[in-house]
Design a protein that fits this description.
Layout lengths: L3 H17 L11 E15 L8 E14 L7 E16 L2 H4 L22 E13 L2 E8 L2 E2 L2 E2 L9 E9 L5 E12 L6 E2 L2 E2 L15 E11 L2 E10 L3 E14 L2 E14 L6 H5 L4 E2 L8 E2 L2 E13 L2 E11 L7 E2 L25 E10 L8 E13 L6 E13 L9 E11 L14 E13 L2
Antiparallel strand pairs: 1-2, 1-25, 2-3, 3-4, 4-5, 5-8, 6-7, 8-9, 9-10, 9-12, 11-20, 12-13, 13-14, 14-15, 15-18, 16-17, 18-19, 19-21, 21-22, 22-23, 23-24, 24-25
Length: about 450
């Protein structure tokens, strides 16, 4: 893991020659900077069981300073980006933050040595970049949003990763990408940690991890209405994952039918695939029979989501089937601070990614611009999963989410956004116990006020 001094030294080494060219056309003239403001409140009510926490509640103010330089002139242009993050605690007590050690953060904030939320936390990420034609290489702080890895931005501050990535649109109708990630900085932390998956997460002394995640793939725009996707991801010593996707828009009558088809095939890699490695803790969560809930990655997912858009209305329905012994694998930091997954069932609380699970969903959204109220939107989703493999037979769960948002459209506060997100999750899985997956019933509310201030 790189420490702050090492990262500062690398940044200085890279920035020194750039500073000499700072007057060059493009580097300065094309630079942009903005300050993102986010006021975030979350209240999670864990309804079942006597074990703490029965309730988690935190409130904070986030600041996100984004700077992106232009590129220096020449065949190969170079530049630098910077991301400064600061989170300030407005309210969080030990009873609602609830973490007993500094190894894990709460819902929003890191924990101090007494398990209480810190007053503030901050970090700085630097990214070197180089461009040749329509191909760009980036090294440093990354926030990828791809089917095999998605940087989560669902709290006060976003998740970031350290690594390198190359992106190219030089081939007509193709967007190609490849990269390698080494560490992750969580939404509620300032330290870089290696990567792992659910099942290998233990105490800080026993958790097994990897600092090598490789990925590659691309989108092919076959026509203006059809996009074909393929991506590959490999978390060394845990899993290899193939993804195929189809996105299609079809004008039917006065509206458009949007189809989103996804397929994943995930298999074991390295130590997770060997008996010795699994015995040493390189495990995945799932259900392997006879009460065994950890083992080798073995997962296939097929899903389809179909949405009909007419005027301000969007009505959708979808189905997802999971096969194999393990849950759907996606990497996290080993401390419960996870990334998002590219499942159509990844919603506010749950992911519906358990071994054997079959999930259907219904969606409805309305854009009030169609009714003369631009900026006001509403969305809802209901998911019902069953067939979760356990030693008590197939179990089920459901979740219902509502989101109501408004963005000011003009005047001095143009761009100021307000959002209320409400979710309820209910599960037939036990709250705790050996030999089965576990899940607590939850109710959750999030209130978010956001604004982006352009600086130059």
């Amino acid at each position: 893991m790189q420490n702050s001094a090492q990262r500062a030294s690398l940044a200085a080494t890279f920035l020194a020659p750039l500073a000499l060219q700072a007057g060059a056309a493009g580097f300065v003239e094309d630079s942009k900077a903005s300050l993102g403001l986010r006021n975030f409140y979350i209240n999670a009510d864990n309804r079942e069981g006597s074990a703490a926490p029965s309730r988690q509640e935190e409130w904070g103010q986030g600041f996100m300073l984004n700077y992106a330089s232009g590129f220096t002139p020449g065949t190969v242009g170079v530049g630098v980006d910077a991301l400064g993050l600061l989170g300030v605690r407005l309210d969080s007590g030990k009873g609602t933050h609830f973490e007993s050690t500094s190894q894990q953060g709460g819902t929003v904030f890191p924990s101090d040595s007494d398990g209480r939320a810190v007053d503030e936390f901050s970090s700085l990420g630097l990214t070197a970049k180089a461009r040749l034609s329509n191909t760009e290489l980036r090294y440093g702080t990354l926030q990828p949003k791809l089917p095999v890895v998605i940087a989560n931005d669902g709290r006060l501050l976003p998740t970031t990763y350290e690594g390198g990535q190359i992106n190219s649109t030089d081939l007509k109708d193709f967007t190609l990408v490849a990269g390698r990630l080494e560490h992750s900085k969580g939404r509620n932390s300032t330290d870089q940690r290696s990567l792992t998956i659910a099942g290998a997460n233990g105490s800080s002394a026993s958790a097994r991890d990897s600092n090598q995640f490789y990925y590659a793939g691309g989108d092919y725009k076959a026509s203006k209405d059809l996009t074909l996707q393929y991506y590959f991801g490999n978390l060394e010593d845990f899993y290899q994952q193939h993804f195929v996707g189809v996105l299609h828009n079809w004008a039917i009558g006065p509206g458009v039918l949007k189809s989103d088809l996804r397929a994943f095939d995930s298999r074991s890699d390295g130590k997770n695939g060997s008996a010795a490695g699994r015995a040493d803790g390189y495990l995945a969560s799932g259900y392997y029979g006879n009460g065994v809930t950890k083992g080798e990655v073995d997962n296939r997912v097929l899903s389809g989501l179909f949405t009909y858009v007419l005027g301000g209305h969007s009505v959708g329905a979808g189905y997802q089937a999971i096969n194999g012994d393990s849950d759907f694998p996606f990497f996290n930091r080993g401390d419960g601070e996870g990334s998002s997954s590219y499942l159509s069932t990844d919603v506010q609380i749950g992911k519906f990614q358990r071994a054997g699970e079959r999930t259907w969903q219904l969606r409805y959204a309305y854009d009030f611009a169609a009714a003369g109220l631009p900026g006001l939107t509403f969305s809802s989703v209901y998911l019902h999963g069953d067939g979760i493999d356990t030693n008590q037979g197939g179990k089920g769960e459901w979740e219902r989410d509502f989101t109501l948002s408004y963005v000011v459209q003009g005047g001095s506060f143009k761009g100021l956004g307000f959002s209320w997100r409400n979710a309820a999750l209910r599960s037939e899985l036990p709250v705790s116990g050996a030999g089965s997956p576990t899940q607590r019933d939850q109710d959750e509310n999030r209130l978010i006020v956001s604004y982006s201030l352009p600086l130059f």
